[in-house]
Predict the structure of tRNA threonylcarbamoyladenosine biosynthesis protein TsaE.
Amino acid sequence: MMKLEINSAQEMQKLGASLGKIAKPGSLLLLNGDLGAGKTTMTQGLARSLGIRRPAKSPTFTIVREYREGRLPLFHMDMYRLENDDLASIDLNGYLNEQGIVVIEWPEIIMNDLPDDYLQLTLKRVDDSWDSTKRVVEVNAQGKQAKEWLEDTLAKFEE
């Protein structure tokens, strides 16, 4: 596992943009972190780098938001409100087979239903102040595609 220090919302969006520029069809990104940790902020940067014009919003109340107008389709999911692990309310396998990018917030609820190749980021506040934008991002890549995605993203992010 590796750790990145992020000092602003703009830097979090830059990390997301780096992920989006490198992402390939079938990429799976899992985002962990408390409410307000920056998961949607990162996804906004990713969406913009794909050429998605409309603002990416949190899917907390809709479970899935679809963005199809970019270089790759983006499916932004939030499992926080998924009741009783009820995946029947969404077609998870359908989204995973779409050959787009799937971003899942609160993935721990459905980990047993996910493929073995994914990039997982855990976003943590550096201090307890709600107005602080400093974060530590713990990065874990599982599988060949995710490891390549991570290596290429880090090179892009450091440019």
About this structure: Residues 2-157 form a domain with the Rossmann fold fold (CATH 3.40.50.300). The two ends are 21 Å apart (CA to CA). The beta strands are 2-6, 27-33, 64-67, 74-78, 101-105, 118-125, 135-142.
